[in-house]
């Protein structure tokens, strides 16, 4: 009798986590991005302090306009140039409508660093609590009998394989712009084409490698 959750319970749990994260933070869920930001927390804190100075989109637009006018100059006097009021009004209306439809700059910024740290801590604590409550928690320094049988039983070779595998996973994650949580859960849930393609590629590759190992080994 398996002590793991049934697949449908796990699917419901992942869906609830993804939906709640999106509703609370108004941003996509991504574990690899959270890990990258937390490990470089000094740089991220500096960027957050800089972003705090420009939280007001209107003030930021006015500051950019003033800096542009100061650097390039205003050119000819606008009052000396004849303008047709009937032509200027539609342009101003279009500009106002485009500005109102444009998403605020704050929604395009990454989630706060403390939110990313809380996500990683919650993943660790959730796994720890699940292992303890199910009675399956114990410390070990190998990858289990399956890894010893399929890959290697030598500890040095195991460390080397895991290191190289971790580097490749990190490289692939950065190359694809997200990991299985960012693309597979959050991106596919939002029906983003790039996430659907990325998820199909890495899941298809995993299935192909599994069948290859099954045939070879």
UniProtKB/TrEMBL annotation:
Residues 76-107 are annotated as: Disordered. It is found in: Cell inner membrane. Pfam families: Sulf_transp. InterPro entries: Sulf_transp_TsuA/YedE (IPR007272). Keywords: Cell inner membrane, Cell membrane, Membrane, Transmembrane, Transmembrane helix, Transport. It is a multi-pass membrane protein. Its main location: membrane. The chain crosses the membrane at residues 6-24, 117-135, 155-173, 194-214. Belongs to the TsuA/YedE (TC 9.B.102) family. This is YeeE/YedE family protein. It comes from Streptomyces aureus. The lineage of its organism: Bacteria, Bacillati, Actinomycetota, Actinomycetes, Kitasatosporales.
């Amino acid at each position: 009798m398996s002590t793991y959750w049934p697949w449908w319970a796990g699917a419901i749990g992942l869906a609830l986590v993804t939906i709640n994260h999106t509703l609370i933070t108004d941003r996509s869920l991504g574990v690899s991005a959270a890990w990258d930001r937390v490990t470089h927390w000094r740089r991220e804190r500096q960027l957050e302090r800089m972003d705090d100075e420009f939280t007001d989109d209107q003030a930021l637009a006015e500051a950019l306009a003033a800096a542009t006018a100061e650097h390039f100059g205003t050119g000819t006097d606008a009052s000396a140039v004849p303008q047709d009021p009937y032509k200027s009004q539609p342009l101003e209306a279009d500009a106002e409508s485009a500005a109102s439809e444009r998403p605020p700059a704050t929604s395009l910024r990454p989630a706060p660093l403390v939110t990313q740290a809380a996500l990683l801590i919650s993943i660790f604590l959730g796994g720890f609590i699940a292992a303890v409550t199910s009675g399956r928690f114990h410390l070990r320094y190998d990858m289990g009998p399956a890894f010893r049988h399929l890959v290697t039983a030598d500890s040095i070779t195991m460390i080397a394989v895991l290191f190289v595998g971790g580097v490749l996973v990190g490289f692939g994650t950065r190359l694809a712009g997200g990991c299985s949580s960012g693309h597979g859960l959050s991106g596919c849930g939002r029906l983003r084409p790039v996430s659907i393609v990325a998820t199909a590629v890495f899941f298809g590759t995993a299935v192909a490698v599994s069948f290859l190992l099954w045939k070879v080994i």
